[in-house]
């Protein structure tokens, strides 16, 4: 018998995910895995993700991009994935997922690794791919929970971190920060924790993040207050959308001061996926816009620009 999520996720949505390269994982289908663009680039042309350049010991070809919770409590304008209601006649219960139980962490990881191997198998015969590098890619050394959805909604997130470590993988978690209680109770923190902050104030946040819960902004701020006490590498990511969330630099600077991250990423919104139906191409900033934003932020915070990666429209700041 199919799980309750299979009923709540329409077949046409599952088919769409499949065509986009996702593979649903587990018997309850609340997890997914996909080959990251930069894993492909690393295999094909030795071009790597900025994370490999900035955050050792990341290796782009050995990164497993996945999610343990395919639903989300926000409908961010800039998100590349399809949301319920984005297309006429395509509606489903996206949050909370209608589940009575969740898959075991060990099962999620093992199946994600296996399905990732299957997705990579077609690269074996590519003459442009180094054979040694390809064989390495089949054995991920990093698990990034950032594919889609909000990973901290999976109630056994700490166990997932532990199981990944047992398999020789470091973990990155990218969170929207709306689940401070989940982060607070984690007994095993990821190797690196990203908090994605799409706005510097509540009014802008409500327009950009379009949360499905009433107190999302307040919850995000609880997470920002919690961050200094979490003993792991912490990054704030500010996704810049031209014409939407760039007016209040001082607000972003205040967030940096309160959260005390190790790093700040200023990253350009990319006009890709489903977001193209929500935003115009003009909302995607140029690298010069991102550099200018980062310089202003640096002046206000005392952080210093440490790196810039034009292919991803990203600038790194550190204290």
Structural summary, described in words:
- The protein has one domain (4-318): Alpha-Beta Barrel (TIM Barrel).
- It is globular, with a radius of gyration of 19 Å.
- The model has no long low-confidence stretch (mean pLDDT 94).
- It is 35% helix and 17% strand.
- The relative contact order is 0.13.
- It has twelve helices and ten strands.
- Strands 1-2-3-4-5-6-7-8-10-9 form a ten-stranded mixed beta sheet, sandwiched between helices.
- It has 319 residues and is an alpha/beta fold.
- Strand 4 (142-145), helix 7 and strand 5 (170-175) form a beta-alpha-beta unit.
Key structural traits:
319 residues; alpha/beta; ten-stranded mixed sheet; single chain; TIM Barrel; globular
Could you give a quick summary of the protein structure above?
This protein is of the alpha/beta class and 319 residues long.
- CATH class descriptor name: Alpha Beta
Global geometry: globular
The CATH architecture comes to Alpha-Beta Barrel
Write the element-wise H/E pattern from the N-terminal end onward: HHEEHHEHHEHEHEHHEHEHEE
| Main pleated sheet | 10 strands, mixed
CATH level-four homologous superfamily name: Aldolase class I
Number of helices: 12
């Amino acid at each position: 018998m199919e799980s309750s999520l299979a009923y709540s996720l329409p077949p046409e949505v599952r088919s769409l995910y499949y065509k986009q390269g996702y593979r649903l994982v587990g018997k309850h289908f609340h997890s997914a895995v996909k080959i990251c663009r930069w894993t492909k680039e690393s295999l094909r042309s030795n071009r790597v993700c900025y994370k490999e350049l900035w955050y050792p010991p990341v290796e782009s070809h050995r990164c497993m991009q996945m999610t343990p919770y395919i639903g989300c409590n926000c409908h961010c304008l800039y998100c590349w994935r399809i949301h319920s209601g984005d297309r006429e006649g395509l509606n489903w219960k996206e949050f909370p997922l209608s589940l009575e139980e969740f898959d075991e962490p060990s099962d999620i990881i093992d199946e994600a690794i296996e399905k990732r191997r299957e997705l990579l198998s077609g690269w074996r015969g590519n003459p442009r791919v180094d054979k040694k590098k390809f064989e390495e890619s089949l054995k991920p050394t990093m698990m990034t929970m950032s594919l889609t959805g909000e990973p901290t909604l999976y109630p056994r997130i700490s166990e997932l971190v532990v199981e990944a470590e047992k398999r020789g993988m470091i973990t990155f978690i990218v969170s929207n920060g709306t689940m401070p209680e989940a982060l607070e109770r984690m007994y095993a923190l990821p190797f690196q924790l990203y908090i994605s902050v799409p706005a510097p104030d509540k009014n802008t946040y409500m327009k950009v993040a379009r949360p499905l819960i009433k107190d999302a902004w307040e919850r995000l701020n609880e997470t920002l207050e919690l961050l200094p006490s979490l003993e792991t590498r912490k990054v704030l990511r500010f996704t810049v959308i031209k014409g939407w969330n760039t007016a209040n630099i001082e607000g972003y600077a205040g967030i940096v001061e309160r959260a005390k991250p190790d790093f700040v990423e200023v990253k350009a919104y990319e006009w890709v996926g489903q977001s193209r139906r929500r935003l115009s191409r003009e909302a995607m900033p140029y690298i010069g816009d991102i550099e200018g934003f980062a310089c202003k932020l640096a002046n206000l915070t005392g952080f210093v620009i440490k790196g810039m990666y034009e292919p991803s429209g990203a600038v790194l700041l550190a204290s």
